[in-house]
Amino acid sequence: MTVRPLIGITTYLEEAAWSVWRQPAAVLPGSYLDAVCRAGGTPVLLPPQDGGVVRLIGALDGLLLAGGADIDPARYGAEPHPRTGSPQPHRDRWESDLLAAALDRDLPVLGICRGLQLLNVALGGDLRQHLPDQSHQDPPATYVRRGVVIRPDSRLGEILGPVAQVSCYHHQAVGRLGTGLRATAWSADENVEALELPGRAFTVAVQWHPETDPEDSRLFEAFTAASCKEAAR
């Protein structure tokens, strides 16, 4: 019987509307769930909360850091840019704690968009808070297809090859790299589009949104395969 690894996915905690209701809710685009399921994993949602991090990480086989709001610039010692979104310290703290516990256990980690930025900040890096060229996020609420060049001698290069067309939606980017991280993909305007932590079971983060491309599941399949090994331990 094939093992379906448990993949924890971080979520938003926002005011949402459904039916006659409008109230705070833990929400996540269904595309993340679909991508994990297609790749053979079982998704487990991880909304921001207090406590329980070590036990959760001990029960999971992989951690997916999803996209979302801008990280509080105070976490990397910067003043907020006028275009930086309102901070969400509860989510920042929760996801940083999850990531620290996952790295301590060498649990497979996949970061997407905000997830890449969180990984960089957690390891001492910083962010460019607003890109002067809006080609990564224009028009609003629409993913922009862009080409990226990938370092061939990287985990991502093994998975996707030397070039890929990807779907972007972000107005911030990696600045100074965090300790131990390696940049492994770039857009034509030289923004870092992927990071890896070498020597790990699987710690890969991308600035784009692979969950929105159901025709290409290679990254999720590689992440799930690494998580399957964890589940079998």
Shape descriptor: globular
What fold name stands as the CATH topology?
Rossmann fold
Order of helices and strands: EEEHEHEHEHEEHEEEEEH
Residue-averaged pLDDT, rounded? 94
| Largest sheet report | 9 strands, mixed
Helix amount:
25-40%
Number of domains: 1
- Strand tally is 13
Q: Rg from C-alpha positions?
A: 17 Å
CATH superfamily: Class I glutamine amidotransferase (GATase) domain
Widest sheet: strand ordering: 4-1-5-6-13-12-11-8-9
* Named CATH architecture: 3-Layer(aba) Sandwich
Strand-helix topology:
Blueprint lengths: L5 E5 L1 E7 L2 E7 L2 H9 L3 E5 L6 H7 L2 E4 L23 H17 L3 E4 L1 H9 L4 E2 L15 E7 L4 H6 L2 E6 L4 E2 L7 E6 L4 E5 L6 E4 L11 H15 L1
Parallel strand pairs: 1-4, 1-5, 5-6, 6-13
Antiparallel strand pairs: 2-3, 7-10, 8-9, 8-11, 11-12, 12-13
Helix pairs in contact: 2-3
What does it look like?
This protein has 233 residues and is α/β, with parallel strands linked by helices. The protein has a single domain (6-232), classed as Class I glutamine amidotransferase (GATase) domain (Rossmann fold), CATH 3.40.50. Helices cover 27% and strands 27% of the residues. The protein is built from six helices and 13 strands. The protein has helices at residues 30-38, 53-59, 89-105, 114-122, 155-160, 218-232, and strands at residues 6-10, 12-18, 21-27, 42-46, 62-65, 109-112, 127-128, 144-150, 163-168, 173-174, 182-187, 192-196, 203-206. The strands form three sheets. The chain has a nine-stranded mixed sheet with strand order 4-1-5-6-13-12-11-8-9, sandwiched between helices. A hairpin with a 2-residue loop joins strand 2 and strand 3 (21-27). The protein is globular.
